[in-house]
Amino acid sequence: MQRITIKDIAAEVGVSHTTVSYVLNNNTNQRISDKTREAVLDAARRLKYVPNETARSLRKDSTECIAVALEKSVAQSRFGRLLQGIREVLGTEGYGLMLMDFQMNKESKCPEYVESVLQRRTDGVIFISSDGLPPVCSRMIDSYKIPFVACDCCPEEEGLASVSFDYEDGAFEVACCLLGEGAKRILYWQPGVDSLQEEYRLCGLKKAMELYPDAELIVCKVPVMQGTSSHDRHMAFDDMCKLSLTQNVLPRLRLFEPNDAVICGWGVMIKYLCAALYQRKELEIKIAVLSDSDVPVVPGMNIMVSRPEYIRGGKESARLLLAQIHKEQYESRIVIAPTPPAYVKI
User: What pTM was estimated for this model as a whole?
Assistant: First the structure.
């Protein structure tokens, strides 16, 4: 089917294609009669004219679209909330988003999300880090002056704008609250992944323990399958949680006193822990979670939560990128504090 152009509309109405362009782009600086305007719009509807957005974006020097680079599952709460924040800000500014993974372009040897800007398909990139790792193309970003924000990582490059979350302080504050309430033992049930987020959290816990030299920190790791897809890893992680809980966590909890505590690193872990403690009638042990997760409904159990504000992080990432695109002043590095530790009472 042949694409209808403004020249076809001009021929239908009997006016110049320039006049048609003025009408369709709502140019009020040109004197065009109401009769001619209505005739052009009516012809555009009848011929089912669709604007050429590529040509329009070249004229406006803007695609009004942002590339969001993400390789993890959007079904995970963390990434879904980041995208929610990004979408809310972009939507109010008239921008859409194009979701992309970390795939490399075979010809140019650079990531597809960078290619999308160079090829004028998007105006900039929000890079959502994988396990806290920085992007591999920082030199190219700087060389081409690409509007770019690295989200959820701490890149070493000074010139790279970033939005990060203070995982270390979140873990520190939770541990201090539990220790201040009388905990002598804290078991950190940790996902066994090689990630900067987990390094920060463990560092925060150790700093808190230094303030309470008589207390003990125990770390139990849940093995995570490496080299598999994100979906397969999370399916297997459920089974590994149950196994780790039975073999490593519950045996250690037999020595715990009522004020002692367990801190879960990932939200998925807490539902298994709560279910096991409820079945064993061991509700005196305190529980905390460092992740953005729903708290399971377990009667009689108080759970301390401190959540990274991922929705806010998504919003700040979008605002930071739009400031670059519009050539406004901006703060190059933003670190978002977690929510203060608080008990959720069921």
Answer: 0.79
Number of CB atoms found within 10 A of residue 278's CB: 15
Q: What is the CATH number of domain 6-51?
A: 1.10.260.40
The number of CA neighbours under 13 Å toward the Cβ of 322 is 20
Tell me which CATH code domain 65-165+311-337 carries: 3.40.50.2300
Per-residue pLDDT 10s for the chain (346 aa) are 567 888 888 888 888 878 888 887 777 777 888 888 889 888 888 888 776 655 554 445 568 899 999 988 888 888 999 999 999 999 999 999 999 989 888 777 889 999 999 888 899 999 998 878 888 888 888 888 899 999 998 767 677 899 999 999 999 999 999 999 999 999 999 998 888 889 999 999 999 999 999 999 999 999 875 554 555 666 688 889 889 999 999 999 988 998 999 999 988 888 888 888 877 765 578 999 998 766 666 666 778 999 899 999 999 999 999 999 999 988 889 999 999 999 886 5
Give the domain 167-307 fold: Rossmann fold (3.40.50)
Exposed/middle/buried for 223, CB within 10 Å: 0-12, 13-18, 19+? middle
How far the first Cα of the chain sits from its last, in Å, is: 61
Question: Is residue 138 a contact partner of residue 150, using CB atoms and an 8 Å limit?
Answer: no
CB-count exposure of residue 333 (10 Å: 0-12, 13-18, 19+): middle
Domain ranges of the chain: 6-51, 65-165+311-337, 167-307
Dist CA 266 CA 201 (whole Å): 11
Strand partners, 263: 188, 288
Specify the 3-state DSSP secondary structure of 134.
coil
